[in-house]
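Deviation from plan, reported transparently: S-adenosylmethionine complex.
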Amino acid sequence: MSDQHHLELKHVVFVGRSWEDYCQMFNLNEADLQGRNVLDCPGGAASFARTAASKGVEVTATDIAYYFSPDELLAKGLEDLQTVQHITSQREDCIEMRETNPRFASFLEEMTATLHETVADIREQGYGTRYVPGRLPNLPFADGQFDIALSGNLLFIYSQQLGRDFHVEAVRELMRVTREEIRLYPLVSTDGQESPFLQDVLQLAAQEGWAAEKLPATYELMPGYELLRLIRN
Ligand SMILES: C[S@@+](CC[C@H](N)C(=O)[O-])C[C@H]1O[C@@H](n2cnc3c(N)ncnc32)[C@H](O)[C@@H]1O
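Because the crystal trials were delayed, the predicted structure below was used instead.
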């Protein structure tokens, strides 16, 4: 794989969440997704696409990490989870969260299990259908290929690593490949403050004729956060 992909991947952790977590992050339920062609970008190590398939919901997961082999993904994911474990064991707010939020106490075990599950599914499926290598802001999909796109834990949260241009071009690209709506979560960067690029994305939405609304998310691990729903007019 190219050095560029290695460099880009270095700054972002390869972890993933479950179907239930996605429903909470994006304020969705199964009925909202049935019969729709869904894009998960970035899919990361999330088991959302696999669980969706078992429910008859068609999800395509794309991620820059899928340019790597399953062995490389597992190694990167396990290393990233160790880093997360180290950081969260030092930070006072995380120590407090672990004591008060039962979900926080178990999230590393849950994410480790999800990583193993997803890498096993990638091995079984191969790349090309459910898991498609792709790099924002240039995705390998046709205009309007998806009814709805979900983008969790990449935009806004990495505002210190990914700049304004990346945010605007990434959302413009999601608009290109999506016919109906896009949901982005969360709207804050890692310091818990609203991302400085949210206003740029809202401006883009207005320019491109997409309605925007903030909705509450109910993801137990990050209580009180919101998502942005963009709807093509
Ligand atoms: C924290 S994970 C989020 C995964 C999943 N959406 C979730 O919420 O659990 C972030 C993912 O973004 C991917 N990523 C980083 N830069 C990317 C880019 N330019 N295009 C596509 N994916 C990217 C990383 O490989 C990583 O898997």
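The mean pLDDT is 93. We consider this an acceptable substitute for the interim report.
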